[in-house]
Structures are given as structure tokens and as C-alpha cells.
Design goal:
The complex is a heterodimer of chains A (235) and B (387). Chain A has 235 residues and is α/β, with parallel strands linked by helices. Helix content of chain A is 32%, strand content 18%. In chain A, β7 and β8 form a beta hairpin. Chain B has a two-stranded antiparallel ribbon. A two-stranded parallel sheet of chain B has the order 3-4. The chains are: A alpha/beta (235), B mainly alpha (387). The structure holds zinc ion. Chain B: Putative RNA polymerase II subunit B1 C-terminal domain (CTD) phosphatase involved in RNA polymerase II transcription regulation.
Chain lengths: 235, 387
């Protein structure tokens, strides 16, 4: 183990946040090197420490692109109008904001940056929760002309200190592709509205970046029933 | 066949309940119950006539099966005829009226009143959404205010002032606070018509010392860094007290009073607009200093009353109901029945009042008082003793 005494508490905190952010992108299906998610505290500090020993968030942003499996998961069913549609996913930009208060100004600057950089979507990690108005913009932003296509997600550093999906009581959530969802509904003769639901604000749903209308398969281990699957419709 | 386990119907504590309370509730109440319906009432039907095609309708999903390896769930139901063999056709204890969830809902005559209520609430929600978006976009626009170069908060340009006042109509005080917050985050003075940056506290400490008329006060740094000057604070809050507390989508009638601004160039703005003339304009007249002071004092009082009235939600300039009630209220004096009597010590406690505790003389003290008397006697008696 590393000698944690020699690092500032903020550095250790930021190291954990950074690792969770990387793990999150990996779990979503982006191309991330496994060892990236396991960066050691010493390596992290040498890369991102300022002279005063505090983490420099401006050097931490990273981007990644979806893996082929992820692309197929987000494939859009072709229609007569659009026989060869683009998958509903693309490159993502993850940024760690360093401002104590984040409001409309920072959020709009960030959106502009995503649009200029041709990113499909973005994740903004803030020190503290955003202002109410910024959240209001975010809520209405999916589809707004000024933002990126895939929208912006916002996390508070606190949310990423621990990777909640690693907790033993959190079952495995697997996103279904459009096709898999259609098969599920067909097989059980269901309409999607008849499925149990999961809110997109649910921590695991946020972690996976679920969008409204998607279906996740939840796999739990049961002592009596072995592996046990259920499905939820994101709302 | 039990109830299908494949679809979790209750808000399960482990799927996400362990870290959120809300999602579980939604799942249990809406998504879950609907599904629960189907298999329950389908089961008796299947027992009665397992070959009936109607039983297919209600087939719930079966546990642990993957969508890909999926034969129809029908065979699993067939073993039921054990009951039929005895010759007692099972009777459903469940209501017959339920229809399979996949069937189209039975067309009920629409209750006109319920429909209207539903439509009313739907339109309220829609209006609310629209107004929230409108407020948001107003704030985004006001972040860039004032639009003219070298603007002066005391003398805003006519177009900026007009737009600002238009923007303020749907605002609630809390929206106005958001505007100030957002402008502050953008390092600007909280007053939308002021181009200056917000004031910088002398240090980065959380609490700051401030010199006021009453001496030094300790204030949050955040409070200190809201405005560029006290004058802007006054002008900005003058707008805030006029804002309507009622959400715009709940307000009655379409008529909205525009808010007033504190400006010093009323001549630049429209005559018809209700702009407040600052008392400084009267100072130029030839009246004596003392008269000016009196006029200013009265004007200040009127302003304060008007502000208070607005804060109470009344229309400025109108005599309020509350005022009338105050005037008509009768004040009755309590009339004394007997002539006043000077206070006097009661007979009982008079002699030992110094021992009394709230009028009561404890026994122990009473005895001591008697002892004192005895002692006096004793000394008297002593005097007779020579020596
Ligand atoms: Zn100012």
C-alpha cells in the first residue's frame, strides 16, 4: 500500500473520484484501458498535483469513444426514411469543474465546448451541486439546440467517491439494446408501460447514463432461486 | 405455477431500494401492480379450460428464462386439471369484471366534470413548464445585461429598463434570487441593470468585518459579495419587493402590473410608465433646507408605507382593508369601580414582614421571632441581677 500520509485529503478524494469516473465510462462500454481505472495514488498525484499538493482539476479532463459492443447496444432500428441510422452514442467528454459555485454560466460554457469539440455527450463533475436554474436548463437541454446531441450529465464529486455498483447489495444492471427490448416485449406480450420502472435519477441509472425509454435487465443472485433476472423501464 | 418472479412487482430493497427511496415507490405502485393483475386472473381461467386460447392472454413472464430461449409459457399451466377431475369446476374468487391487460380498456362514459378537472390540471402543468422555461431564458438573457456600453445603474437606458421590467412580470421572489445568484457566479453585480463586477471582500475568509453606523458587524462573505455597492442593493431589492409571490401559472386574470424601477432619469423613459422620481429632483428648488428635509421625510415615509403595502400583497396607493379595520376598532378603557386605595401592609404580616416569603412567614422564623422576645425578657431580667 502507498503511504497515504504524504498526500493531502483533497488529493486522495479526487483520486477516488477520478477512478470512479473512469470505471463508470468503462462500465458503460467506452473504450478505456483497464489499468486506467486502477491508477495508483502515487501516479495520480504525480500527474495531477499542483505545487501546493492540491489536485489540479483543469488537467484531469478526458474523452473516450464507444467500443463496438457499445455502438451495437445503442444501434437505432432502421426505418424506411432512414435505412442506415447512426447509433445514438458517440464520443464523450468528462470534465472536473474547479469552481466552488457552478451556475448557468459554467454549464453553458461547457455545452458550448462540447458542441465545438463535436462531442456526442458530456459528463461534468462539480465540487458542489449546481444552482437550481442550471439544473432547470439541464432538464430541458436534451434536444435543445445549444447543447450536444447526447446531452450533459452532471455529477457531484461526492457521488463518485465510492463506486456504488461495486457494493455487494447492488445487483448487476445490464442495458438492453433496442432490439433486445423489442424481443423482451414481444416474448412476454407486454407493452413497455407494463414493465416495472426505474427512475433515470436512480443512482445506478445515473451511473449507467440511462435514458428515458431504455430497459435494463437486473440480475440478482438469490439463495433459493439462483440467478434471477428482472427488467425495468427507465422513466 | 406461482406468480411470475421474472418481473419484480414490489419495490425490491436490493435492486435500488438500498440507495434510493423514490424509485422503489414508483415501481411498486404503477408498473408492478398492472402486471400483477394479468396472471392472477388468468390462472383460474387456465384451470377451467386449459386449452382455451384466452388463457394465453394473461400469461405472465416466467422466472429465470432468458428472452432468447423462450417457448410459450402455456404448457406450464396445463397440469392444473387435477382439480377438474374431481368434478368440481373451480370457481374464481376473483372479480370477473377484470379484463386482461392487453385487451383494450372498456369504453366508459366519460364523466364530464372529471374530464374538465383533468384538463384543467394538465393545462396548469403545461403552463408551469412554459413559464419555468421563460424565466430560465429571461435569466440567461439578463446575465448579459446591461446591453449598452458604459451603462449606469442609476440611469439605465430606456430599452434595457423596459425589457427588464417585462422580464420581471412572471418572476417570483425566488426566481429573482436565482437571477442574483447566477449573476454573482458570473462575477457580476446582482442588480441586472448594473454593469459593474460584484464587490470583492478584502479577504477570502468566510466571515468578514464590516463597518456600519452601529459599529463593526460580522457578516458572511457571500452576503458581502452580492452587489457592487449599497446603492445597487437598494435598487435591486426595490424590484424584489414588488414581485408577486404567487406563481405566474396560478395568477388570476391576465392583467399584471409592471414593476417600478428606481431611476434618476425618468425623463428618458416613457411618461406613461410608473417610474419613481427620486426625492433628489426636488432638492433643486428654492425651498429652504428645513422644508426640504420635512418633504423628504414625508416622502420617505410614504415610500416605506407603499413598500410595506406591496409586501403585504396590496395594490400600491389604495387604502387597504387592514387599515380600515384598524380605524374602526373601538378602544375601551377599563373603568375603576372603587376609589384607589394606597397599599398597606396587612395586620398579620406587618411585624415580621422581613421574614415573609411572598407573603408567607415560615414557622421556623415565627418561632425565632418569639425567641427573640424571650431573650429580650431575659435581658430585662438580667438587669435586675446585680453584678
Ligand atoms: Zn451594481
Amino acid at each position: 500500500m502507498e503511504d497515504r500520509e504524504s498526500y493531502s485529503p483533497n488529493m486522495i478524494r479526487m483520486w477516488r473520484v477520478y477512478r470512479t469516473a473512469k470505471e463508470m465510462c468503462l462500465d458503460r462500454g467506452y473504450n478505456i484501458l483497464e489499468e486506467d481505472t486502477q491508477i495508483s495514488l502515487a501516479d495520480f498525484a504525480s500527474r495531477f498535483a499542483r505545487e501546493d499538493g492540491e489536485p489540479d482539476r483543469t488537467r484531469m479532463p478526458f474523452s473516450c469513444v464507444p467500443s463496438p459492443e457499445m455502438l451495437s447496444k445503442y444501434a437505432v432500428t432502421p426505418t424506411a426514411k432512414d435505412p442506415d441510422p447512426q447509433p445514438a452514442i458517440g464520443s464523450i467528454w468528462v470534465e472536473f469543474n474547479q469552481d466552488e459555485n457552478v451556475g448557468l454560466k459554467q454549464l453553458r460554457d461547457y455545452m458550448q465546448h462540447l458542441v465545438n469539440g463535436n462531442f456526442y455527450s458530456g459528463i461534468m463533475v462539480c465540487i458542489k451541486p449546481m444552482t437550481g436554474m442550471a439544473l432547470r436548463l439541464l432538464r430541458g437541454a436534451s434536444g435543445i439546440e445549444e447543447g450536444p446531441k447526447g446531452g450533459v450529465e452532471v455529477f457531484v464529486e461526492q457521488d463518485l467517491l465510492v463506486n456504488i455498483t461495486k457494493h455487494e447489495l447492488v445487483p448487476k444492471h445490464v442495458l438492453l439494446s433496442k432490439e433486445e427490448k423489442a424481443q423482451l416485449l414481444e416474448r412476454y406480450r407486454l407493452r413497455e408501460t407494463q414493465l416495472p420502472r426505474i427512475q433515470v435519477t436512480d443512482p445506478v441509472a445515473k451511473y449507467l447514463g440511462l435514458r428515458r425509454g431504455q430497459v435494463v435487465k437486473i440480475i440478482r443472485k438469490s439463495e433459493t432461486a439462483g440467478r434471477y433476472a428482472s427488467y425495468r423501464w427507465a422513466i | 405455477m406461482g406468480l411470475p418472479g421474472g418481473l419484480q412487482t414490489e419495490g425490491s430493497p436490493f435492486s435500488h431500494g438500498c440507495h434510493t427511496g423514490v424509485a422503489g415507490r414508483v415501481c411498486g405502485s404503477e408498473g408492478g401492480l398492472k402486471i400483477l393483475n394479468a396472471p392472477r386472473q388468468a390462472q383460474p381461467a387456465a384451470e377451467a379450460s386449459s386449452s382455451s386460447s384466452s388463457s394465453k392472454q394473461g400469461q405472465g413472464p416466467t422466472p429465470q428464462t432468458e428472452p432468447s430461449s423462450a417457448p410459450s409459457a402455456l404448457p406450464e399451466v396445463s397440469p392444473a386439471p387435477a382439480v377438474t377431475a374431481v368434478g368440481m369446476p373451480p370457481k374464481s374468487i376473483l372479480k370477473n369484471s377484470t379484463v386482461p391487460t392487453n385487451a383494450p380498456p372498456a369504453s366508459k362514459p366519460v364523466n364530464k366534470r372529471h374530464l374538465n378537472v383533468a384538463l384543467h390540471h394538465a393545462s396548469l402543468i403545461e403552463q408551469r413548464k412554459q413559464i419555468e422555461q421563460q424565466v430560465l431564458h429571461s435569466i440567461i438573457t439578463l446575465l448579459e445585461f446591461p446591453t449598452v456600453q458604459n451603462a449606469d445603474p442609476t440611469r439605465p437606458s430606456a430599452s434595457d429598463a423596459l425589457r427588464f421590467r417585462d422580464f420581471m412580470i412572471p418572476f417570483q421572489p425566488s426566481d429573482y434570487d436565482s437571477l442574483i445568484e447566477e449573476r454573482n457566479i458570473a462575477e457580476k453585480c446582482g442588480y441586472a441593470l448594473c454593469p459593474h463586477p460584484k464587490r470583492q471582500a478584502p479577504s477570502r475568509a468566510k466571515k468578514q468585518f464590516v463597518d456600519t453606523d452601529k459599529g463593526v458587524e460580522i457578516v458572511d462573505r457571500k452576503l458581502l459579495e452580492v452587489w457592487c455597492s449599497d446603492d445597487c442593493a437598494r435598487r435591486a431589492l426595490y424590484v424584489k419587493v414588488q414581485l408577486n409571490e404567487t406563481p405566474a401559472w396560478m395568477r388570476q386574470g391576465g392583467h399584471e402590473d409592471k414593476i417600478e424601477l428606481m431611476v434618476e432619469n425618468p425623463e428618458d423613459h416613457h411618461k406613461a410608465l410608473p417610474l419613481r422620481l427620486k426625492k433628489e429632483t426636488a432638492a433643486g428648488s428654492s425651498k429652504s433646507r428645513k422644508d426640504d428635509d420635512i418633504v423628504a421625510a414625508w416622502a420617505a415615509r410614504d415610500d416605506a408605507l407603499a413598500d410595506l403595502a406591496v409586501e403585504r400583497g396590496e395594490k400600491p396607493g389604495r387604502l387597504s382593508k387592514a387599515n380600515k379595520d384598524l380605524i374602526t376598532a373601538q378602544i375601551r378603557e377599563r373603568v375603576g369601580q372603587s376609589p384607589p386605595v394606597p397599599p398597606s401592609l396587612s395586620e398579620q404580616t406587618g411585624a415580621q414582614s422581613q421574614m415573609a416569603i411572598e407573603g408567607h412567614v415560615p414557622r421556623i422564623n415565627r418561632e425565632q421571632w418569639q425567641d427573640d422576645e424571650d431573650e429580650d425578657n431575659a435581658t430585662d431580667w438580667d438587669k435586675h441581677i446585680p453584678g
